[in-house]
Amino acid sequence: MNGVIDYLMIIAYFALMLAAGYWGYRRAKTADDFLVAGRRLGPVMYLGTLSATTLGGASTIGGVALGYQFGVSGMWLAAMIGLGAAALSLLFSSRLANLGIISFSDVLELRYRRAAGLFGALVMGVYEVMVVVTQVLAIGTLFDVVLGLSPTLAIVAAGGIVLLYSVAGGMWAITLTDIIQFVVMTVGIFFLLLPLALSQAGGLGGLRAELPASYFDLTAIGGQTILAYFLSFFLGIMIGQETWQRVFTARSGSVARWGGLLTGLYCVAYAFAGALVGCAARVLLPDLANPDNAFAQVATTVLPVGVQGLVLAAALAAVMSTASACLMAASTVLANGVYAHFFAGRETAGVALNRLIMLLVGVAALVLAVIVGDVVGALSVAFALLVSATFVPIVGALYWRRATGAGALAAIAAGSVVALAFIFTQGIHSNAAIIFGLLASLVAFVGVSLLTPPPSPRRLEEWERRMEEPAVARGGGLS
């Protein structure tokens, strides 16, 4: 990419992000504003922020790479993310929005006991930090291929901008940047890159003529891979703090439910678009050494000067929106679910403390991205631990009245130990880690819950009342 207009578009995009940070800074006066945007988002803003959050570097750059390698079946990664968002909306969103909480760990503590909340927050914090690192690395890859900048410089520059606007404006700034990023992603992928790439590859007829028949088989990527995406991404999105925190921003359970369903449909369409761009890239650039470069290479091949910058901004938008969401999620659970609540004796950290923890988490993530270089394995471990340790007790908290705090702790411990055992014996990409981790968690959860005294009727009634009654009706919220 060598057009001055393209560089100016990237600079303008970054300027918009910083302006959003300043706008959010002026609005973030309370913890409610900083962490959950005052719980005031309507359907349009909610759809935009949730879509931008769920679709990151894996869905955009990785989705095109999978399309390059496997054809339309490469859509399963991003599609599972979208289907997970839809399932979250159908099964959890109304209850979560009504609770008036800010953190994943709050559910475990309110329904079970303090220890469950603490251990859940620690597991979630590690997971979110690793997702931030992978997104920052994706930014470095984009800048290295397209702009010729060193990955380290790109990580520091683009990652620093994400950190700056997130720390300054909190959820209001992140929501505004998400809306901008959602628009840029939609225009860049659906209205520019996809039609132009297909056109230069000869349309769908040209793809069928040039590519093997397997490229048009939805199962060509393999049943085991589809299962792995289901276990990691579908289940992970359903319980991830970054998606839950978006649910907490909705002004009502209805907004969260319908906005999430529309997000799911959007993500599935985005998944197909990415896979088709990958197919076109395979026809136009059949000899790429690294499929992960397919997005950047096909963009520079098919797009005219002046448009390349917008499409690169679309990829950056997808990556930066997820990076900022997970940065906010990591700092929220660590600042509020761990430090403020368990060590400072406060229910919620103030705005200043939230900003400080976010800054420390962000700097740590940037340093890790520069030093480690490749954290795919670490991310796989984080996903396995997250799903194995916390999925069962979370579902139990929302739907099983007989669940107990002892059962939740047993589930977290059993799922973690079994998942780690399989990771160490079969490798970091073993599906068995999540499968048997989930089974161990379920058995421990049900068995220990049935063997221990049931929760007190008073505690259970208060919990169920909170899930059914909107927080605004009972004066819920943060100070």
Automatic annotation (TrEMBL):
Query: What cellular-component terms does GO give this entry?
Result: plasma membrane
Ranges that cross the membrane:
6-25, 46-68, 74-94, 115-139, 145-167, 179-198, 218-240, 261-285, 305-335, 356-373, 379-400, 407-426, 432-451
- What's in the keyword line of the UniProt record? Membrane, Transmembrane, Transmembrane helix, Transport
- Of which family is this protein a member? Belongs to the sodium:solute symporter (SSF) (TC 2.A.21) family.
> How does the protein associate with the membrane?
Multi-pass membrane protein
State the Gene Ontology terms under molecular function: transmembrane transporter activity
- The name under which this protein is listed is Na+/solute symporter
Ranges in a coiled coil: none
Family matches, as Pfam families:
SSF (PF00474)
Q: Where in the cell is it found?
A: Membrane
Gene3D superfamilies membership: Sodium/glucose cotransporter
Which species does the entry assign this protein to? Rubrobacter xylanophilus (strain DSM 9941 / JCM 11954 / NBRC 16129 / PRD-1)
Q: Please give the superkingdom of this protein's source.
A: Bacteria
Q: Which PANTHER family match?
A: SODIUM-SOLUTE SYMPORTER-RELATED, SODIUM/PROLINE SYMPORTER-RELATED
